[in-house]
Amino acid sequence: MDAQGSHPIQVVLRDDTLERNRWTVAFRLILAIPLLIWWYLWTLGAVIALPVAWVWALIAGRLPDGLHNFYGAYVRFTSQLHGYMTFATDRYPPFDGSKDYALDVDIAPAAPQSRVKVLFRLLLALPPLILAGALIGGTGGGGGDFDGSRTTGDDGGGFGTLALTGGGALTVIAVLGWFACLARGAVPWGFRDFAVWAIGYGAQAGGYLVLLTDRYPNSMPALARPAGMPEHPVGATLEDDLRRSRLTVAFRLLLALPHVVWLTLWGIVALLAAIANWFATLFVGTSPAALHDFLAAYVRQRAHVLAFVLLAANPFPGFTGAPGSYPLDVQIAPPAPQHRGKTFFRIVLAIPAAWIASAIVWAAFVAAVGGWFASLVTGRMPRGLRDIGAFAVRYSAQLDAYAFLLTDRYPYTGPTLERRRTFLPPSHGGPSRDWQVAPEAM
């Protein structure tokens, strides 16, 4: 599984199995103690050597092969440790950062770099590290993909970012994944895919910080749905050319206030409708069409407003939640039979997904802050940051639909995109419609 595209730092998942050993899962933190001790010692050496690497790269215009190999092994080991700690992989990682592991990081050989980028590397690396911190956890953080479409990213690489502690989205998913692995003997598909994506972005952010490349990290999710994964009843489509109005970007939160008021009022009625829908679905086994349509419109409206706030789309949303009325739109399948056991315990079952949604939306908000500055300067939203927002909108819509009993399919946690559709860019007379999301259950 290669989720990095053409970036010089690419995460590769060589073992696609989801089965996990319950015993090693139960004692994963204890088993990881030697790895963590070694990682902290290695990090100390990496910090000490970084000024030497910076001066060398500034003078020579590239990192020497010895330091490049040293930092490459460090980033690779950090990513493998993240993979082991978050149950993306099951086998114990090697201590030398070798490529003989289920989760590998391919790093291109040392190459010439822009001295200007080297000179300001610490400053330039702050946004990706902040975003990586929001995705993974730790004291660092990262920003998104300010160079647009050249890469796709993941996790695990900067010093603070790699602390393996903190409140990132992957931390929340790993905690829930621990329970899931113990109960099922396997990691949920979406959990594993999110971990690989986040770990890959962290590897790019960390590799950029330690001068392995001067290519900026890219946060774009993977572009292929796993083989055999059925389509989710709640999908999302995006038609967007990345152009943003500087005026509406500057006042985006103020412009969203009328929608916040409207959604609050609509939400009171929607809550009453959801309670009625719960009783109806529990007794009839399916959501009544009238309640389904009303709640579906509310879910779409929430998605449209969230997309607007996160800069995942440009125009001001309408107030009706009509299908097809916004560039980032949500499709909700008609009423279908639902499992009464899942219906009865729906609120309890939705709690883990709500935790995940809050973490993902927070990461998307961090990406939106970076996108806000970029859009004000360039008039365009960086593609990777836009796609994080779109992913958050899709997951939130699936959670809303699940909570309101529009479907009993659990939200899919992986940042997988359904398919890429290539259109002529605006300069060639056609719209740019980038991708369509319709993933599936956790």
Tell me about this structure.
The protein has helices at residues 22-26, 28-31, 33-60, 65-85, 115-119, 121-136, 169-184, 189-209, 246-250, 252-284, 289-309, 340-344, 346-378, 383-403, and strands spanning 9-13, 103-107, 154-155, 234-238, 328-332, 419-420, 435-437. The two termini are 19 Å apart. 52% of the residues are buried. The model is unreliable at 139-166 and 418-442 (pLDDT under 50). With 442 residues, it is α+β, with helices and mostly antiparallel strands. It has 2 domains: 9-209, no CATH class; 234-437, no CATH class. It has a 4-stranded antiparallel beta sheet. It is built from 14 helices and 7 strands.
Strand content: 5-15%
Structurally, the number of domains stands at: 2
Distance between the termini: 19 Å
Identify the strand order in the major beta sheet.
Answer: 5-4-7-6
Structural class: alpha+beta
**What value does the average pLDDT take?**
86
Give the overall shape: flat
Kindly provide the radius of gyration, computed on alpha-carbon positions and rounded to a whole number of angstroms.
22 Å
Total helical elements: 14
Residue share in helix = 40-55%
Characterize the largest beta sheet: strand count, sense, and whether it forms a barrel.
Answer: 4 strands, antiparallel
- Element-by-element helix/strand order: EHHHHEHHEHHEHHHEHHHEE
Unreliable stretches:
139-166, 418-442
| Total count of strands | 7
